[in-house]
Amino acid sequence: MYTFQALQIFLFLIPGFISSAILNTLVVRKKEQGELAKIIEALIFSMLIYTFYSFLIKQSPIVLDQTSGTITYSYDAESFLALFLLSVLLPIPLALFATNDWHMKLARWLKISKRTARSSVWFDVFYDVKKHIIVDFENGRQVYGWPMYYSDDPDEPYIYLYEPFWIQDNKYVPTGLTGLLITPEQKIEFIEFLDK
Question: What is the DSSP string of the chain?
Answer without folding.
Answer: -HHHHHHHHHHHHHHHHHHHHHHHHHS--SSPPPHHHHHHHHHHHHHHHHHHHHHH--S-SEEEEEETTEEEEEE-HHHHHHHHHHHHHTHHHHHHHHHHTHHHHHHHHTTS----SSS-HHHHHHHH----EEEEETTS-EEEEEEEEE-S-TTS--EEEEEEEEEETTEEEE---SEEEE-GGG-EEEEEE---
